Amino acid sequence: MKWPTADEMHALVPLPEGYRLERFELGHVAGLIAGIKAWYPEISVGVNSGYLREDYYLNRVYLEGKNDRDIIVFPITFKGKLVGMWTVEREIDSLAIYGRFLVIAPEHRGANLAGIMMKGADALGRSMGAAFLYALATLRIPQAQRVLESTGYRLLGFFPGYDREEISSGVVKRVYQAVYAKLLVPESEILRPHPKNMTPTSSALFAMLFADSPVANT
To answer: Which among 62, 74, 145, 151 is most buried, taking Cβ atoms within 10 Å?
Structure first.
């Protein structure tokens, strides 16, 4: 589960002309913090609010050639100007990639960068030997849900009150999150559950979510 270099990422996730995934450096931190505050102020609290703090980058984010950490950040530029950020986390023991956070400046959201990144997550995961991708999407706006669904992610359910968001000035509430996932390995590598090991409730939900992956018969 070794992170690709920035140069390798350009081949794995080709972007439209003028756009580029940059190698993260500490010099990006101030610009990323200012950009995220402007592009997506709702995350002033909650699970991704760490990206608004300098210490988070210093202590948790991977720096190519300098440390080996489980969170990587890709600043996104357009003709040299910072216009977004994509960050993912690896889970080495489960061979999984968690799509933590993707934010694009509003004036660049028509370039379909989110869809390209989600497709690029497949290439990233496969290059690292990952077997599983997953992400959470807010239910306050539909855009992230649409992107995940259009790029082959399966909706598995909802986390009730998992995260926090500032829904209006000074008002913070816990919010629902949609849970999406995608397998990067064939079904032949998956152990399907046996009915005797499932409660009626879990069996019914499994049948609804995985009609194309039946419960084992033996």
So the answer is: 74
Q: Which residues are CB-neighbours of 50 under 8 A, at least 6 positions away?
A: 56, 60
CB count in 10 Å sphere of residue 194: 11
Q: What is the mean pLDDT of residues 32-58?
A: 94
**Are 69 and 94 in contact, with CB atoms under 8 Å apart?**
no
Whole-number CA gyration radius for the chain: 18
Whole-model pTM?
0.91
Calpha distance 124→213 (Å, rounded): 26
Beta-carbon contacts of 128 under 8 Å, excluding residues fewer than 6 positions away, are 1, 2, 3, 4, 90, 97
Give the whole-angstrom CA distance, residue 1 versus residue 128: 5
Token pair in block for residue 204: 């019914």
pLDDT band at residue 218 using 50, 70 and 90 as cut-offs: very low
- Give alpha helix (H) positions in 85-211: 113-128, 143-150, 200-209
Share the mean pLDDT of the chain. Answer: 93
Domains identified in the chain and CATH numbers:
6-185 (3.40.630.30), 191-218 (no CATH)
Task: Give burial (CB, 10 Å; 0-12/13-18/19+) of 82.
Answer: middle
Cα gap 70→96, rounded to integer Å: 11
Sign of CA dihedral 136, 98, 162, 209: positive
